[in-house]
Write a structure and sequence with these properties.
Length: 195
């Protein structure tokens, strides 16, 4: 049986990220056409906006948490963390989804923050609170994903998984974040140097 992986990201970051990327692309074309019409280099605006697109990729679109049958993977801004369940001590949620490895190191996720209430909840227990009318789906927040990670760890243990006490994990640099940013900055520098 193949390992099933579920990827979690927040909807607002995806919507905002894709909106900015589409707007940036349109802006690059429009400004490039205006620059070409005035006799300037039409590539310069695209080079500046390529850096913006790379930052949007790193901050809004790339971060994710992937939960599979035997591990949790967190893609943060420029680092990736892979925690096998054998090295996972706990899944918590103080400010964001936090994975604690067996060495006691806490790894926080950029992609999954805790739920924030836009308005204070009332303390009054009413009939409306007991029904599903007006309620939305639970969404991807740290409380929900932490619970799902704990469920997967329990399934892993029931299937015969064994912990590796005292062993931790280390974050690794993510080339899928560093390379696009470096390429965009290099493109901008070349365009500015060549005029």
């Amino acid at each position: 049986m193949a390992a099933e992986t579920t990827t979690y990201r927040t909807l607002p970051s995806r919507v905002t990220g894709w909106t900015i990327l589409i707007a940036t692309s349109g802006l690059a074309v429009a400004i490039g056409m205006m620059e070409a019409a005035s006799g300037n280099n039409p590539i310069t605006p695209a080079a500046f906006l390529a850096v913006v697109a790379a930052v949007v990729w790193i901050v809004l679109l790339r971060p994710a948490v992937r939960v599979s049958d035997d591990r949790v993977q967190m893609s943060n801004l420029v680092t990736d963390i892979e925690v096998p369940y054998s090295r996972l001590k706990a899944a918590e949620h103080q400010w964001a989804l936090e994975i604690i490895d067996n060495a006691g190191t806490k790894h926080s996720s950029w992609a999954i923050p805790v739920r924030r209430e836009l308005r204070p909840r009332r303390d009054i227990d009413s009939y409306a609170e007991a029904t599903t009318k007006g309620k939305t789906a639970e969404g991807n927040n740290a409380e929900v994903i932490s619970g799902r990670v704990q469920q997967m760890v329990q399934r892993w243990k029931l299937a015969g998984g064994h912990a590796e006490p005292g062993l931790g994990v280390s974050p690794t640099w993510s080339w899928t974040a560093i390379v696009p940013l470096a390429a965009a900055v290099a493109f901008l520098v070349v365009v500015l140097l060549l005029g």
